[in-house]
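Take a record:
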Amino acid sequence: MPLRKDAKIELIRSVPLFSSCSKRELSKIASMADELDFPEGKTLIKEGERGREFLVLVEGTVEVSRKGRKLPPLGRADCIGEIALVLDVPRTATVTTTSPVRALVLTNQSFRSLLEGSPQVQLKVIRSLAERLAPEII
């Protein structure tokens, strides 16, 4: 059953990447996002491939691996795919569902449109990415 718009907005607000967005910004994100269901065992993202979408997990869990090494699993309200889209680099990890998953999906074009059309969202995404990548650099 698809999420109501208010529930979709609240879910997006719970994602650290968008937690400080205004209600208007959250509504814009919600209107651009599609809800998709994936079965257990589905590879959502493959390391080294071109990034085409950004996903927010609504239900279920995924396994993440980079260069053959398992990383901590992700679940509800976690997001995946933004690094490749923002930095325009190949995917940095492989992500596979470990249960049935429902996700909100923004296409590369919608994600870029969101960033280009909203400097506030762009700044928040850049800040979040910097925080996420800092432990790997420092």
